[in-house]
Amino acid sequence: MGSDSQYQIPTIEFTMNSLVVDRGTAEWYHLCKKVREACENYGCFEIVYDKIPPQTKAETLSASRKLYSLPLETKKNNLTPNRYQGYVGPGVTAPLYEGFGFQEASNYESLRSFTEEIWSHDQFCTVLSMMKQLDELKDMIHLMILDSYGLEKSSNLIMVSKTVLRLHKYTTRPSGEYAMAASAHTDKTFSTILFDDQVSGLEVQTKDEQWVKLPISPCSFIFVVGDFLMAWSSGRMHSVKHRVMMCGEKERHSLISSALPIEGSIIKAQKELVDEDYPQILKDFDYTEFFNFICSSEGRAIDSQMQVYAFAGIGT
Ligand SMILES: O=C(O)CCC(=O)C(=O)O
Ligand SMILES: [Fe+2]
């Protein structure tokens, strides 16, 4: 359990006012370096970002609570076979978890039609504004990653992503005991930005395999490196394993904004990032085929962090 209270992931403050003005300045490159080091050494970092006030986060999660307060039958009307779309109810493997997903969240129309009858106009606008701002933040961090490797001109692969928004709710066991609510995994994304309602639950695994709690302050967001950024960077960036553990009485709400490859994308290491220290560890692979693999019974039997190596590892 989260035992190492000394462990701290890096905290990075984004104070610049405008990306257009600031890109290329000394301050920009200083931040790029911090972002790169955090992604390589920890696989995640805390973002302090004053453009999105705590109040907007609280209002977004309040809209989320409204979705969950609907009767189960109504929520179930939004069940879809698609992993990232619609409602996911508590199941045998994850009894404490419920989720709502909005595919192609960057195509805001899908969100509107989905929530039209549930949210007021103001609530819809709050969530929409949150999504847009998190998209901007993600674009900025992805640019920083490119710039940190000196790839400003040569590569824009990680820009080609779609955003999936998920609203999560975790309950606790009636006994209040410490229990798994989301099993340990690495994200099948380029990257993820998330925040919660300050009910703790998120834990990350350190490189020496200790689980540590990751409290998220009202002013912060967490950036998490996914498997595809790890593959893109030829293993330089660390796709960190994480999980959600609940205890006590309070339920927890979180918002997850994930940058996923578009259908048919080929995930490959940038040739500029492959060298003696970071030789090619994965074959180029088709995102959709990988996705099908992790959903298959063969793929599901493999530890989440190892799935990408089992599918595309060189020499496996
Ligand atoms: O809800 C959270 O805090 C984390 C969820 C998560 O890791 C995920 O959806 O990939
Ligand atoms: Fe995750």
From TrEMBL:
GO MF terms, alphabetically ordered: dioxygenase activity; metal ion binding
Residue ranges of domain Fe2OG dioxygenase in the record: 161-264
UniProt keyword annotation of Metal-binding present: yes
UniProt KW Oxidoreductase keyword: yes
Pfam families according to UniProt: 2OG-FeII_Oxy, DIOX_N
UniProtKB keywords: Dioxygenase, Iron, Metal-binding, Oxidoreductase
Domain of life: Eukaryota
Gene3D superfamilies: B-lactam Antibiotic, Isopenicillin N Synthase, Chain
PANTHER family reported in the protein's UniProt record: 2-OXOGLUTARATE (2OG) AND FE(II)-DEPENDENT OXYGENASE SUPERFAMILY PROTEIN-RELATED (PTHR47990)
Family designation: Belongs to the iron/ascorbate-dependent oxidoreductase family.
Protein name: Putative oxoglutarate/iron-dependent dioxygenase, non-heme dioxygenase domain-containing protein
Organism encoding this protein: Rosa chinensis
